[in-house]
Amino acid sequence: MSDIVIPESTEQVIADSTFRFEGTFRYVSARGVRNPERHLMIARDVREMTVVTTEDQLGDVDVIEMNADRWLLLAIDCANPFYCVGFIAKISAALSGAGLDILVISTFSCDWVFVKEDDGDRAAGVLRGLGFRG
User: Fold this and answer.
1) Residue 91: CA atoms inside 13 Å, Cβ hemisphere, count?
2) Which residues of 81-111 are buried (b: 16+ CB within 10 A; e: fewer)?
3) Cα dihedral sign for 124, 126, 129, 133?
4) Are residues 61 and 103 in the same domain?
5) Domain limits at 93?
6) Per the domain annotation, does 4 fall within a domain?
7) Which of the residues 60, 63, 96, 122 has the least number of beta carbons within 10 Å of its own beta carbon?
């Protein structure tokens, strides 16, 4: 028998979930990176390597191009990770409905929503409006 519990509603999972601010980051297209353990994320696809890192760690990155904006990380701790249909869709729809540009990444233990640095307070208000605690 499996220990997986499928929630009855996305709204209930949101009400049981929290978020927190985790710092400001830069998105970089890179040729290479030293000390990978110092960076939040390194992702590769067939076209490029992307590094998400703090400004003080940019010296470790062989930068091709850097996004002009600084991105504030909202780490979302889902009360029922992996098994909540519509969880990311609800978050994305609410934030985009408020006119916020977002970047979303899911890790094993939480979901990361990046908003432009100046939009942090608005984004937190939207998440609280959805029912998140944070």
Assistant:
1) 29
2) beebeebbebbeebbeeeebebbeeeeeebb
3) negative
4) no
5) 10-24+69-130
6) no
7) 96
